[in-house]
Write a structure and sequence with these properties.
alpha/beta; Arginase, Chain A; two-stranded antiparallel ribbon; 10 strands; about 30% helix
């Protein structure tokens, strides 16, 4: 549904029940032209960077299915994103599951087009490797800050004797390429056993704020939010949400689960606390539906996308005088 002036609404459940209609993110229309939207919802169905359990390539499709359960208004923040911004589903990036280099180029080109059209992307992966070409496509010459929810730092140099591009290396590459300002990066929820005592040296030496899960629990959600705001400041930043930041009791369908993580409620509280942060885009990654036939992990992914969407729509609305 188009409200007029380019505003779009999800399908009306009184006319099209949630189990009907074509699956799109939040049941919004499919729009091919990013110039027609303020916020572009995009799928990147690609998991060629996975080092253990594949399956995240199926994430975007199942997140779309589960996003039919998202309603119009955030009950806690009272934000209705569809009244504040033009939002639509731009479909999936075309990928080649057999060729990493070609797919990286395709993703960069796609997001570069979105950036030049003036739209902000909110994406569903895919494994965490997809965030690197997204950041390349969004790069306008100024490094971004990063809010990074994850069980893993993803700043390893290489895997398997020299492979530089995996879902465990994207943020090291992004720092090296100048896409991110490491002093405005914060990684929230890091935990789990390590390969080596020096696994996190690169991130620490670069100035990345690593918030281990134990410290996050000590601070509480309000304290974590305050620390995020302190680190990223008011300049533009990107938000990436790896579903494995959550305890696998809440999101079992992922490639590299780590016990001892956040609850879904804690994650929602932290995201809601980021209202007003200068977000230029975001993603939810590492949802691997084959490992969770119940669909709960994809539902969690869709819900976190909706929370991020509310943040981005409110920011767009404020810039355009709609709030």
């Amino acid at each position: 549904m188009d409200q007029g002036q380019g505003f779009f609404e999800p399908l009306d459940v009184a006319v099209y029940p949630r189990f009907s209609g074509l699956p799109t993110f939040m049941r919004l229309p499919y729009v091919a032209d990013p110039a027609k939207v303020d916020i572009a919802l995009i799928g990147v169905p690609w998991d060629a960077g996975v080092t253990n359990r594949p399956g995240a390539r199926h994430g975007p499709r199942e997140i779309r299915n589960q996003s039919s359960l998202m309603r119009r208004v955030n009950h806690q923040t009272r934000v209705c994103p569809y009244e504040l911004a033009r939002i639509a589903d731009l479909g999936d990036v075309s990928v080649n599951p057999c060729d990493m280099d070609e797919t990286m180029d395709r993703v960069v080109d796609f997001y570069s087009t979105v950036r030049k059209a003036g739209a902000l992307p909110l994406s569903a992966g895919g494994d965490h490797m997809v965030t690197l070409p997204i950041l390349r496509g969004l790069f306008d010459g100024t490094p971004l800050g990063l809010v990074h929810f994850d069980a893993h730092s993803d700043t390893t140099d290489s895997y398997f004797g020299g492979t530089k591009l995996t879902h465990g290396t994207p943020f090291r590459r992004a720092i090296e390429e100048g896409l991110l300002d490491p002093k405005r990066m914060i990684q929230v929820g890091i935990r789990g056993s390590m390969f080596d005592l020096h696994d996190l040296d690169f991130a620490r030496d670069a100035g990345v704020r690593i918030l281990f899960i134990e410290e996050a629990f000590e601070l509480g959600t309000a304290g974590v939010v305050a620390e995020i705001r302190k680190v990223v400041g008011e300049a533009p930043c990107y938000l990436t949400f790896d579903i494995d930041c959550l305890d696998p009791a809440f999101a079992p369908g992922t490639g590299t689960p780590e016990i001892g993580g956040f609850t879904t409620a804690q994650a929602q509280q932290m995201l809601r606390g980021l209202r007003g942060v200068n977000l230029t885009g975001g993603d939810v990654v590492e949802v691997a539906p084959p490992f969770d036939p119940s669909g709960v992990t994809a539902l969690v992914g869709a819900t976190m996308m909706f929370e991020i969407l509310c943040l981005m729509a409110e920011a767009v609305g404020a810039r355009k005088g709609r709030v």
